[in-house]
Amino acid sequence: MAIKQTAGRDSLGEFAPKFAQLNDDILFGEVRNREDALSLRDRSLVTVVALMAQGLVDSSFRYHLATAKQNGITRLEISEILTHAAFYAGWPKAWAAFRMAKEVWDEPQADDEKARHQRQMVFPIGAPNDGFARYFTGKSYLQPLSTAQVGVHLVTFEPGCRNNWHIHEAKQGGGQILICTAGAGYYQEWGQAPRKLSPGDVVNIPAGVKHWHGAAPDSWFSHLAIEVPGDGCATQWLEPVTGGVYGE
Ligand code: MN
User: Fold this and answer.
1) Structure pTM?
2) How far is the CA of 82 from the centre of ligand 1 (A)?
């Protein structure tokens, strides 16, 4: 998201109009907001490390930390970035930067994991999957990608979340194809061992086969769910999945 900067003109517009114009229009307007070679996130990373290396931990540093967070740098990442930079820039400078970073990244850890999972995908995680929540253990998210011709939905599972045993029924054709996009998960057919799933894996599920799919106990997981066209298609939802990979 491009930022319209007015700090230069607000503070120095009268006293140093050229500096204000260079700050607002060139540094922030053209360099800082240019995304064709470096993402805004990467530009934030460079800015934060350069300022930290100078020991500049004033209000402008706080502004750049807040911008870095807004541009997608997580709590886990900023802690690693500052730890790494500490060896090159100096230990006391890292201490000073950490004190401020800790205040800026004050949200719970779960948000970091969700953001990290999101960055591994080109599709948005989407909204909480409230419509199907009663057929899931744990929290899932649903993002429709195609609702014409062939239905394609992105389903994202929080760690340990999985859907109930179910059957995609059809009189002819039908069934489901899963294409794994991020994280680690499982697919299991009734009477078979669970199959571990990684990004890029494809699962062809024929109509009439009892199965479930979901996240590994310790990982977020996303797959595309493709509805294979057929006659008389309907999903029969059955009992929750317990034990096995989840050990409950
Ligand atoms: Mn299914």
Assistant:
1) 0.62
2) 43
